[in-house]
Amino acid sequence: MSDISKQPVPRLAVTTSLCDNGGRQQEKALSISAKLSIPCLERENQSIEKLLGRYLLDGVLVVERDRIVYKYSGGEFFFHPGLAILRINEISSGKTDQMIKTMEIRPGDRVLDCTLGLGSDSIVIAYSTNGGEVIGLESSPVISLIVAEGLKSYTGKAGGTLLRSMQNVRVFCADYNDYLKDQAEDSVDVVYFDPMFRRPGRKSCSISALRPLANNSPLSVEALQEATRVARRRVVVKESSQGQEFSRLGIKTVAGGKYSPVTYGIIEKRGG
User: Fold this and answer.
1) What pLDDT is recorded for position 48?
2) Edge-to-edge, what's the strand order for the sheet holding 169-172?
3) CA–CA gap between residue 222 and residue 249 (Å, rounded)
4) Residue 267 exposed, middle or buried by CB count within 10 Å (0-12, 13-18, 19+)
5) Where in the chain are the domains?
6) Which of 48, 100, 263, 265 is the most buried (most CB within 10 A)?
7) Residues pairing with 172 in the sheet
8) Residue 7: what pLDDT?
9) Which of 115, 13, 22 is nearest to 70 (CA)?
């Protein structure tokens, strides 16, 4: 498994909100400081802008009462299930989710999401496994921390089905290139990649905020070979409908709607 300390991390620190009743936020901030090897700053009624300027930081992780927020000069990011809520509602009403259809998710499946990112796809996959397991890999220590904490402590409007799906996603801070090499053959049912998260084409403010923290390495043929070894049934790769990655990676089977902005490449495992 990859040594996460080798991942490039911007100049960061961690602090608390202005209202840390009981000191619980400070305790959590100190834990994050040790885990990520970043300074823990006393808030002392200082604004985030002042902290960024005073300590020449790129961003600050703020421990609040029920969430962790990444704040920087251009805005902020915190975990939210996002479109996963809408997609799960549509699936439950009988509509087709193209990703789930392409992956051929079955009840009880064990799925490896190699590019967790914001976690939305993993939540939808977990719902579709109906009690199965989703392993989400994220090589950025900051992103994996925010998403892992968010999956456990999300308090927004959500039904029990969504919360159970979130709890069935296990987050690991790891580079999928290293993680895959350590896994046994046929140890998961499906392996999934969404390299699109790394690209600047998306307009989402949340993704723009996290882009400097993300691993921008392209998906390699070698990683696909390892994924095919680990998957029992198939490997699925998400790509822009205008992209050229499938050709570069040698993926010949492609699925997706005629007018959809994304397509899915499929590598079928023999005997899957």
Assistant:
1) 95
2) 169-172, 133-137, 110-113, 188-193, 231-240, 262-268, 253-255
3) 9
4) buried
5) 10-77, 83-268
6) 265
7) 137
8) 45
9) 13
**Average of per-residue pLDDT values in the chain:** 88
Instruction: Classify domain 10-77 at the CATH topology level.
Output: Rossmann fold (3.40.50)
Output the pLDDT for position 110.
98
d(CA 60, CA 63): 10
Encoding tokens for residue 12? 């960061």
pTM of the model: 0.89
pLDDT for res 51: 96
Please report which residue ranges of 106-236 form alpha helices under DSSP H: 120-129, 141-153, 160-167, 176-181, 205-210, 221-230
Regions of the chain with pLDDT less than 50: 1-8
Q: Environment class of residue 124 by beta-carbon count within 10 Å: exposed (0-12), middle (13-18) or buried (19+)?
A: buried
pLDDT at residue 5, rounded to an integer: 40
Four-way CATH pick for 83-268: 3.40.50.1860, 3.40.50.10260, 3.40.50.150, 3.30.1330.40: 3.40.50.150
